[in-house]
Amino acid sequence: MKKVAAVLLSMTLLLSGCGGNGGSQDTTTAAPTTAAPTTAAETTAEPAGQGAYKAGTYTASAQGNNGPVELSVTFSQDAITEIAIGKHGETTGISDGAFEKIPAAIIENQSLGVDTISGATYTSQAILDAVADCVTQAGGDAEALRAVTVEGGEEAESAVLADSEVDVLVIGGGGAGLSAALSASQNGASVILVEKLSALGGNTFRCGGAFNACDPERQKDIPMTEALSSAVEKVLAHEDVSEDHAKLKAEVQAQWDEYKASGNTMLFDTPEWHALQSIDAGDYEGNVELVRTLTTNTLDTLNWLSDNGVEWTDEVSTVVGALWNRSHQTPNNSGADIIAALEKNATESGVEIYLDSKAEELIVEDGRVAGAVITNAAGEKVTVKAKKGVIMATGGFSANVEMRVKYNKQWEDIGESLTTNNSPGATGDGIVMGEAVGANLVGMGWIQLMPLNSVSGGGISGYVNSSLYCNKEGKRFVAEDQRRDVLAEAVLAQTDKLFYIVCDQKEAELRGRTPEVLGYMVDNGLLYSGDTIAELAENMGVPADALEQTVKEFNEAVKADKPDEFGRTTWENTIETGPFYAPSFSPAVHHTMGGLEINGNAEVINTEGEVIPGFYAAGEVTGGIHGTNRVGGNAVPDALCFGKIAGVNAAGN
Ligand code: ADP
């Protein structure tokens, strides 16, 4: 049994793609945990017992959230007596609970069957795996220790969902679900939220939390350039594809004409330009009404999040594939910041949150979605009746290879050959449940590959303003500020489907990389480095003369501030201040653009084009917003805006 989400401390993956911070931190060797001979918890199998180990200290490491977690374990002949955590790159604050509690619980219970810490699952698992390795090295039986289950420990507070009746049921505890639950609760509804994993957050937690919004205050010091003007003119020159598009284009044209006539030299942006750019980047497959709903609500939603404790930095930037300088970021460049604030406020507002609780199917009564069948944390099937509405917020299906292959119409191969950087919960459950009650599915064939999936294990930033991408030949091969599908396709055509992001010390500092973090990444081979470009090239194994020439031409292009030979229009800093760094990347399945059709009220639409009463959806489980290609930094606002809209509407139903 796991506890209700009382603690939301969890993990961020390196450069998961939404502008991730690559959050590696070198938390140096922690104080060792020694044996505490208490019997607070009850174990259900025999621990190892006398003479089970070759006494001594053994070391091992296992993959955590941000790279390997090293530790050493000391054994007497009969017991594990001490666990000392060594080097690791886990994020301070998020992983602390695992480092404090898991070693103590292992020693206390002489068991590897202890519960992982809610919200720090990967760190917990890494500790358990590394200790298991040491047990094997010491001649013990790790599998037997894993079978020693522990009950009644500090983490095993019981909160198991029973048959219930509530105003609003929210299915899924990522950004969309928490936003929906909070807004429904703030609008007077009683709310239950169920999450099938042991931690809240979903992909929203794992990503960099980049949040696109036209924001005159934060954008006021960004200069407009010739290259950016040409990007506006290009999108405005596109032929009309629908009445809605023509109307939107005419509005943007009028805004653009007015802007030019005003003599303003700072960045042009409006919610309508954001919408038009998003429609264009999705090859005109997105629903104009929904995209406009999104872009006209993003700033309000961002401010609502601020009112609910989410902090944003004062600057905006351009996350990979964002196409414009409007990506907001939290102080830690992390979606975890958003989830933590939402979870706190939702709980305080009275939302009941149940982890390890999986929705299996929707209940329909008199043509209305009236609840769902849930498998609770004890493995029992229970029903939750929802008087006002059910909000589906289960995310996408990037982690479901079968569904990817079934629906894909964009990529040559989207099966096992590609990894995903998504949460294991992204298995498309809500799409299946929705389809079973008649929901229409839209855009299912469009699946986004994130070009920036870390291969070397480290990263400096997912922001393109100062990024140089080069291949194994040391040459640039694409405009780094391009759409994600264009970037991914270009990477797939390079040697070993791999590329490097080259940056300098100045950029590393700008992205909050401390010397300790950089040192950790270099020492552990998570990226390449060199005091000169030639030295960096040598360490990367790419031709030094080619890389030197590439960097020289890049710096000239930054200074010229004009579209270059690849058509890049976004420039910021040159790459000149050593040391220089280069992590490597390859594409991974990142976002599924298709899903349940909704209208601007977040109501789900059936195959006849009618609203399904009582049924709402928000976030990645929905389709029709992003078209063929989601703009980088549009996913989090999509989840949170439509989550908020769904919550308000379901509560008012
Ligand atoms: P979004 O950005 O749309 O909120 P996320 O991936 O962030 O999407 O969150 C979706 C959440 O829904 C994940 O935490 C996932 O584990 C959860 N989930 C998926 N399927 C189910 C289900 N059947 N029952 C409960 N929760 C689910």
Describe it for me?
- The longest helix has 20 residues, at 243-262.
- Strand 3 and strand 4 form a beta hairpin.
- With 653 residues, the chain is of the alpha+beta class.
- Helices cover 33% and strands 19% of the residues.
- Helix 1 packs parallel to helix 2 (121-137), helix 4 runs parallel beside helix 19 (635-652) and helix 10 (288-307) crosses helix 19.
- Mean pLDDT is 88; it is low at 1-43 and 153-158.
- Strands 7, 8, 11, 12, 13, 14, 23 and 24 form an eight-stranded mixed sheet that branches. Strands 16, 17, 18, 19, 20 and 21 form a six-stranded antiparallel sheet that branches. It has a four-stranded antiparallel sheet with strand order 1-5-4-3.
- The chain binds adenosine-5'-diphosphate.
- Adenosine-5'-diphosphate (ADP) binds at residues 171-177, 194-197, 202-204, 358-359, 393-395, 423, 425-426, 429, 619-621, 639.
- Residues 171-177, 194-197, 202-204, 358-359, 393-395, 423, 425-426, 429, 619-621, 639 line the site of adenosine-5'-diphosphate (ADP).
